[in-house]
Amino acid sequence: MKPLLEKAFDPEDFRREGHKLVDLLTSYLESCRQKAQMPVLPPSDPETMAGFWKNDLLNPGFELQSFYSTLIAQSNHIHHPRYMGHQVVPPAPLSALTELLEALLNNGMAIYEMGPAATAIERVVLQWLAQRLGMPDAADGVLTSGGSAGNLTALLAARQAVCGHNIWEEGNQDHAPLAIMVSDEAHYSMARAARIMGWGEKGVVKVPVNDRMQLDAGKLKEALHDAKARGLQVIALVGNACSTSTGSYDPLNEMADFAQENNLWFHVDGAHGGAAALTNKYSHLTKGIEKADSVVIDFHKMMLAPALTTAVLFKNGAHSYETFAQKAAYLLASGAQKPWYDSAGRTLECTKKMLGVKVYAMIKLYGDQLFSDYVESAYDLGQEFFNLLSLQSDFEPALKPDGNIVCFRFKPEGFNGNLCVLNAEIRKKILNDAGFYVVQTQILGQVYLRVTLMNPFTEINDLNDLLLLIRELGNGILETANA
Ligand SMILES: Cc1ncc(COP(=O)(O)O)c(C=O)c1O
């Protein structure tokens, strides 16, 4: 054995460094949880950051623990309750520990023989979720690496099931151009999936939204009629549960009925908010999800898992076998009987991580209640923040939130300048200050600040402090402009 290989696989090194890393991460988690005064994201711009790591690579000295500390310092602090920007969950720490196990076991999961326990666990996790969503016993699906891959997987199945011929084998035939129908607010992965399938921009038929940014079900008939008049064959209707920008839930129940009446596949993008179905308090938002032909839910958003694990569920499980009806003789069994346990036949991935294991461990450790407690407290805080905003004369919520995504803007009384410029400027200053992380979005062409309340330790006091900061920054900008 060459000495370097001997060293790279030394179990004692692993034990020693592993213990130290767990200690380091424990202290990090403690400071985040105690809301230590610290920037919640690193101050560097991309070029400086790239320069730092380029130099670091050239530097001969290296000490693993100091590398870990530097990496933590230069990363976003998702576990800090004042990080409230994008839809990234602070993973439940033990799920990250389980992921360490997965990484080391590294059972690839393309076929059963490559990852026996993980394959079975994936099935158990999917059946658990399908049952919680109220889907029929025949439901089946796959875990995949992220919601974008999940949405593509579901829409590929929709295309195969609805377009009228075996498009997977035969390619595009002489039929009308295919399209999906989505709300104006759908995640961009929908448009991307349509383009990947070769349908271009016209393959996405947009249905207008109402003033709560939910798909306007009253406009469905007209949108479908217009699409047909333009020569399109609409194969699927997609519902948001919820939308990315404003967290609005589409009227899934009505949409499911419309899809059924018009022979459309009904897909629900529940990447962010599908987990509301697991609660008592907010499951009304997902009413109708159980009727969907396919559903996507990210465990790494509202279900406390580290990125990435996405469930793609099909009401008729047989559809999950048709999506990628491709032969790979060396890998996949041939013949009509398709085994559930060779997942490469049903996912984009060949090698796939042991995606279900961390979810399984959380279900066993904490039970369903964990997910419902988490979603309910995050959504409750969204409502509380909306109430707080509504009491301020110089703030304006964009809309009443359905869940934990809240959009608002600073709108000082008597100000008749450009609110978009003012709020974009405020956000830049919040980024420089780095005590909070918030993002911005556009709603009906207007710039709004946007928070996603993913951290169970964020409290209304933090949000109150955020408003104080925004007020101070906003007034400072106006004073400078008037000076
Ligand atoms: C509604 C919705 N769908 C899909 C996605 C894409 O999911 P992922 O980031 O896991 O690819 C997102 C991500 O923010 C989302 O909000």
Secondary structure elements and pairings:
Blueprint: H1 3-8, H2 11-33, H3 46-58, H4 64-73, H5 93-105, H6 116-132, E1 140-144, H7 147-162, H8 167-170, E2 178-183, H9 188-196, E3 204-207, H10 220-229, E4 233-240, H11 252-261, E5 265-269, E6 294-298, H12 299-302, E7 310-314, H13 357-366, H14 368-390, E8 395-397, E9 405-410, H15 419-433, E10 439-443, E11 446-452, H16 460-482
Parallel strand pairs: 2-3, 2-4, 4-5, 5-6
Antiparallel strand pairs: 1-7, 6-7, 8-9, 9-11, 10-11
Helix pairs in contact: 2-4, 5-13, 7-9, 14-16, 15-16
The structure holds pyridoxal-5'-phosphate (PLP).
Architecture overview:
The chain is an alpha/beta fold and 483 residues long. The protein has two domains: 100-366, Aspartate Aminotransferase, domain 2, CATH 3.40.640; 369-482, Aspartate Aminotransferase, domain 1 (Alpha-Beta Complex), CATH 3.90.1150.10. Helices cover 43% and strands 12% of the residues. It is built from 16 helices and eleven strands. The N and C termini lie far apart (73 Å). The model has no long low-confidence stretch (mean pLDDT 94). Pyridoxal-5'-phosphate binds next to helix 7.
